Amino acid sequence: MTRHDCDFLVVGGGLAGFAAALTAAQAGLQVVVLEKTAHTGGSSAMSGGCLAFAGTDLQRKHGIEDSSPLLFSDMVDVGKGECDESLVRLYADNQLHTYEWLKRNGVVFSDAIEAASGQSVPRVHNVDPADMVRQLQNAALATGNVTLWLQSRARRLLREADGRVVGATVEREGETLVVHARRAVLLASGGFVQDRALIHRFAPHYDNAVFIGGEGNEGDGLRMAWALGADVRDLPYIKGTFGKHPIDEHNHHACLAVYKGAIAVNQEGKRFVDESQSYKLLGDAVMQQSDGVGYQILDHGIMHSGDNQIRILDFTRRLEEGLFVQAHTLEELARLIDVPQEVFLAQVSAYNEAVRNGLEPEFGRKHLVHHHGQLRTIEHGPFYAYPSTAAVFGTYCGVVVDAGLRAIDVFGEPIEGLLAAGEMIGGFHGAAYMTGSALGKAAVFGRLAGASAAAMEGGSK
Amino acid sequence: MKRLVIIPQVWGATALDTALSAGQHLAGDGGFSVLLIGSQACALDQDLACRAGAETVYQALHPGLQEGDDPYAVACAVSEALAAILPSPREPYLVLLPPGTAGEELAALLADLLDGQPLGRCLSLSVEGEAVIAERAAWGGRMRIKLQVESGLAFACLRAGRAVYNLPVTASICTLNLHTSLPLGWVLQTHESSERLPPLEGASLVVSGGRGVNEAGFALLEELALRLNGTLGGSLPAVDAGRVPVLRQVGVSGKFVSPQVYLAVGISGTLQHLAGVSLDSQIVAINQDPEADIFKVAAVGIVAEWQSLVPALLEALAP
Amino acid sequence: MKILVLLAGVADMRFALHPIRLTPDAQILEEGTARRLLSPFDEAALEVALKLRDGNPDTRIDVLLLEGPNTENLLRSVAAFCPDSLQALGIQAARLWHSRESARQIGAVIDQHFPEHELVVVGRELGDLDEGSLPPLLARSLRRRQFAMAQVAQWQGDRLLLMRERGTREEWLTVDQPLLVSVTNDKRNRLRHPLMKNVMAAKRRVFTCLPVPVAVTSGPALRALEAAPVTTRGGQCQMLGGDSAHQAQALIGWLKDQGVHL
After folding, report:
1. What part of A 351-390 touches C (C-beta under 8 Å)?
2. Alpha-carbon distances of B223 from C198, C202, C253, rounded to whole Å
3. What are the respective helix, strand and coil percentages of chain A, to the nearest 5?
4. A260 shares its domain with A233
5. In this complex, which chains have at least 3 CB pairs below 8 Å with chain B?
6. Of chain B's two ends, which shows fewer C-beta atoms within 10 Å, N or C?
């Protein structure tokens, strides 16, 4: 079999892969990046482009005071104590430098900083994610130390007798070859949104959800590491975002009319959750319902309280696209969405009654969203329903890693020569995740993995 | 390669004009002939065909042909006429039908009846030796396909603007009396629909609304059409939304209109829609989006919301 | 009453077109990830059938979807409307440029598998390569008459009525023989929203494909397939500014200059 040699083999051409490749190349390593599909970018390029950073110049410009310790404590809170705090610490300690490094390498941040659930202060920074990956890719190739192979799939990791990972077998142009890496192999091949069987294995209640991600995200890296005895974490916490229309292939982002006062009912016509919660928790809640489907119910007033410039609130635009079910009366709406009319009417009525009297409706809803906004009634026709399921954009779980991004086996021992970064690691997010931390960790840990490889000694022959 | 233009007389003056224009466009060295078909001879139609430069004008008469005929009945009558006109079924012949839905249907039926090739709605047609080359739109107008017919009869429709009628008259008129039994037409119940405005066909001014105009807006556009002595049209999305009936749909899958002035209100200007508006028409664009494509093809543009502009127009036009 | 609905789907206009080219042996090759969805005419045809079934539970709807990009997903979205049967039809929608042959092939399948279907319903244009020739040719192939451009279909007792508008008239036909009906879009036949439980059930379905006979009908040769050139209409657009009253006056002035009678 043909053999290629390099210092550092990176599996996956998304944000984590290129952050690692560029860092290692800048340190003088010879790098090979493998990308299974015909295009780089993967899920990173399809994402919303949100990155959570704390203490940046942009935040200061907007008068926002933030710090790594505050970021750390917010993340641990969001993860409900399930996260590996050493990884959260790693992120918090290295994120600001990563932000600056990204900018130095051509990544352009937009001026706006957004707030998000779980963040004490606004810290969501925005980029064009496809452009970000392109910038890092171009910078990496420009060093002269990086070779990119498209349509090249890593199949198995290669190990020496002493257990050290020294490379991988790769399928490329119809033949199998071997790539040896003197320092390390990095698995940055994303998660497994495209492997429904694996989703079913760990999160069967998400079978009916919609999965959106890079076409290559089939769990390749996870399996290769697993085969070597790598430990895995956070698998039960696969989550989706509520508000995805089950048959709309055009709009990837959710519609969250609930945040402007709509209620969510299931196929039985009943409310099932406090609609002011985070969209991931709402996602979990809807997947527990029949067929994984709910309906956001709103009236004329709520429909026109949206904002077509904000992705999750562009109600009238979606109305024009024909995505809302519309009716003159609630009775007619019930019929069109096939929910039991009596139950449905009673639910809306009870909700309105509570709101009018300043009481908490069922499920303890106090506000429109999180801790903001006053509840409103649903009573002025025409009435609308937005069929909603959850959209899973990433499987935020996978291989256990240490602070050097080394893969750790089931006995807690590092697997020499094997690193992992990005969507395929587990333990960082814990039970839930903070907006901007998923894409953020690809950049932060990708860069650290590259640095880790550069610090290693060239061990193999 | 001979060319023959077939014109069912009851289809009206526009059909005659556009069909003759297509004939002129494709005349080449050999010229073209015209087959007029109806229940009664029409000297005016024959005269126009002659002055448009036809070599021979056939006047086919079948007493059973009537207004509102099924295209199949027309096709049967035409087949009989063609049997008399065409020397041999195998000789290459380009047969043109008036552009539009009815012509396209007739082309398909004739091709089937006479074992020829239906080329349908052509964007361009040319003759290379004994072959006919047709270019058609596909994938919503985003692609072009080129088809070639090497032999036999080809039936096609082509829009080529208006005909000219100042050519020297050399044609002879030849009458054909047809007697084939025609298939029975549909037995239909008809009622008048509640249309206040004239149909799109032949209108010299069209006020047209797009997806940006709601039901109340269309009521205003109807008023405006009345005041301007024109008629009402709409884009496919507006028809889909139920704000204007489908017989007023303008576009590639709707009517083709060639008014002097086409007022496009709340219409973004997609290719599909513009394909229904003649290149000779002057477009007035009223749209709140200054980046809308319609402004690239309009003669006059107003960036405004119809909600303010249309009432302002109606007020300025008030007697 | 048995109804056969024929659907073709069209490339989604909201997205850039997928790569399409002609192979050296004149076959159309569609590559990349194409998004195909039901056209407004497909939707109208389907809704007409669904409304007839609503009005008379003895109505049976069988659906055939032509092959093409993304057939599996498109079948699922149609399955969500619960037709009595749904299969793919083994002819590429992109093949319909050869309208006579395609009509013969499709007609042969219908004759063989759906001989008792009184209504064959199809949109006025069947897919991206048909501009209206296919319905009349298919009617001929089936030896049926075509009622073209229907907008409404409804029951009156146990009689089936079809309606279309011509000029200022509505034309109503009482169906008394097997027909091919081509349907055009109309607000009365806007496709309904499918029920979500049916959408979810459809995700688990497996579909079959009905093959078409090999037809040998002489036809045109497909010589070229290219992207359409971007046509420019010389619009040197004169923009009218000011407030609404101003703009209105300016426009009226321009209309008068064009000779419009006000």
Report:
1. 387
2. 44, 47, 19
3. 35, 25, 40
4. no
5. C
6. C
**Does the pLDDT at position A12 exceed 90?**
yes
Task: Tell me which residue has tokens 């919660």.
Answer: A277
In this structure, what token pair is assigned to residue B64? Answer: 């059973």
Q: Which conformational region is residue A261 in: left (phi greater than 0), alpha (psi within -120 to 50 degrees), or beta?
A: left
Q: Does A250 touch chain C (CB under 8 A)?
A: yes
Q: Are residues A163 and A271 in the same domain?
A: no
Digit-coded pLDDT (tens) for A371-416: 888 999 999 999 999 999 999 999 999 999 999 999 999 999 999 9
Quick check: is A208 in a domain?
no
Type of residue found at A366:
K
pLDDT of residue C233: 67
Domains, chain C, ordered by start: 2-211 (3.40.50.620)
Q: Give yes or no for C216 touching B (CB within 8 A).
A: no
Average pLDDT over residues C36-40: 93
Confidence of residue A335 (pLDDT cuts 50, 70, 90): very high
pLDDT digits (tens, 9 = 90+) for B63-87: 989 877 788 999 999 999 999 988 7
Cβ distance of C35 and A249 shorter than 8 Å: yes
The confidence score (pLDDT) of residue C66 equals 98
* Percent of chain A's residues with pLDDT above 70: 99
| Preferred mutation among B11, B70, B74, B112 to probe C, highest tally of C CBs within 10 A | B112
The answer as to whether A325 is a domain residue is: yes
Please tell me whether residues A39 and A164 are part of one structural domain: yes
Out of C99, C172, C218, the one facing B189 most closely (by C-beta) is C172
Of residues C35, C193, C197, nearest to A291 (C-beta): C197
**Are B229 and C261 within 8 A, CB to CB?**
yes
Exposed/middle/buried for residue A65 (C-beta within 10 Å: 0-12, 13-18, 19+): exposed
**What average pLDDT is seen over chain A?**
94
Under an 8 A CB cutoff, do B228 and C235 touch? no
- pLDDT of B318: 86
What local confidence, expressed as pLDDT, does residue C169 receive? 86
Location of structure tokens 């990830």: C33
Please check whether residue B219 touches C, CB under 8 A. no
Instruction: Return the residue matching tokens 């006056």.
Output: C249
| Predicted local distance difference test score (pLDDT) of residue B275 | 87
Residue closest to A124 by CA, chosen among A135, A116, A132, A133? A116
Angle formed at CA A190 by CA A189 and CA A194, multiple of 5 degrees: 110
Residue given tokens 């929910």 in the structure block: A339
Residue A383 lies in a domain: yes
Residue to test with chain B: of C30, C177, C249, C255, most B Cβ within 10 A = C255
Q: Looking at the complex, does the CB of residue B274 fall below 8 Å from at least one CB of chain C?
A: yes
Question: How many CB pairs (< 8 A) connect A and C?
Answer: 37
Q: Complex ipTM, two decimals?
A: 0.91
Q: What CATH number is attached to the domain comprising A138?
A: 3.50.50.60
Q: Which of C10, C41, C239 sits opposite B301 (nearest CB)?
A: C239
B30 — pLDDT class (breaks 50, 70, 90):
confident
Show which of residues 387-426 on chain A sit within 8 Å of chain C, judged by CB atoms: 387
In angstroms, the Cα distances linking A121 to A78, B80, C221 are 14, 84, 67
Read off the pLDDT band of A461 (50, 70, 90): very low
Residue B95 has pLDDT above 80, yes or no: yes
* Cβ contact A246–C77 (<8 Å): no
**Confidence band for A7, pLDDT divided at 50, 70 and 90:** very high
First-to-last alpha carbon distance for chain B, in angstroms, is: 59
Domains of chain B as residue ranges with CATH = 2-177 (3.40.50.620), 205-317 (3.40.50.1220)
Single pTM value for the model? 0.84
Chosen from A207, A247, A317, A319 to mutate, greatest number of chain C CBs within 10 A:
A247
- Neighbours of C, requiring at least 3 CB pairs below 8 Å, are A, B
